[in-house]
Amino acid sequence: MGNQLILRKADFFPRQGQAVAVADRYPQNVFAEHTHEFYELVLVWRGNGLHIFNDRPYRITRGDLFYIRAEDKHSYASVNDLVLQNIIYCPDRLTLNLDWAAHIPGLNDVDRTPHWRLGSTGMTQARQVITQLEQESAKTDALANSMAEALFAQLVMTLHRHRFTADNQAATHSEALLDKLITALSGSLNRAFILERFCEQEQCSERTLRQQFRTQTGMTINNYLRQLRICHAQYLLQHSDLMIGEVAMRCGFEDSNYFSVVFTRETGMTPSQWRQRRNEAA
Asked: What's this model's pTM, rounded to 2 decimal places?
């Protein structure tokens, strides 16, 4: 960590003592691994990218939500029209008498689930609050900080109300079709996903859904699912002692040789090389 890039409060908060601010990324470019002097919420609106969070890779796209602490290290790679917003905040500067830890996962190192998803309903409501928050946090009058903090409280409660874990298909019953599809894909890492069956169940056009998915995420459905599986494989290779064949099975590849070919093509290393390099780095 000696040469770790650290993002400083003074460079990101317009005013000294400010508790909350909004940092737009239109688009988010490749960004080196870093930590912060502040906390942040990351909401992804469009496109896709590789978010490496505390050494774990996540293929992110529309609707992904992360709760990031100051000490968390993360970076962005392989971005493709990735549009997101960072809501940055300093817990020690918050003054409202609110149980912040009840709404922000991991704020006090309890219930540490940093990655969630928002459906279209939650995204729409969150965007409205963020727009107001961005305007208020740029003001300089006597009430600006208090107004911004009140809006931030509204935002964290809105996110709490609408967020769900990435593979929780039951949580998407009232959400848009694209939300249901992305969640279904996340829940299919270890088994086959048949788009035709999904479309029959949802009574929708396969062609239209494919077009909508590509427009919003910048990827095909098959490519997104493959990327999810490779990210999961990277995690298992680094954090388990499973044999390569077992990793392949748990990531939806029935043929371990084919898994190795796909993994090598996507990462530039064989699964064994990946595991060895990560173990050496640790």
From this structure: 0.92
219, 79 Cβ separation under 8 angstroms: no
For residues 95 and 91, what is the distance between their CA atoms, to the nearest angstrom? Answer: 9
Give alpha helix (H) positions in the chain: 9-12, 120-137, 144-162, 177-186, 195-202, 206-217, 221-239, 244-250, 256-267, 271-281
Nearest CA-CA partner of 237 in 198, 266, 197, 208: 266
From the number of C-beta atoms within 10 Å of its C-beta (0-12, 13-18, 19+), residue 10 rates as exposed
Q: State yes or no: cis peptide before 27, omega within 30 of 0.
A: yes
List the one residue out of 121, 28, 106 whose CA is nearest residue 69. 106
Q: Using one digit for the tens of pLDDT, what is the confidence trace for 87-130?
A: 999 999 999 999 999 999 999 876 689 999 999 999 999 999 99
Q: How far apart (Å, rounded) are the C-alpha atoms in residues 20 and 16?
A: 11
At residue 175, the 3 state secondary structure works out as coil
How far apart CA 6 and CA 260 sit, in angstroms, is 36
Strands 115-117 and 31-36: unpaired
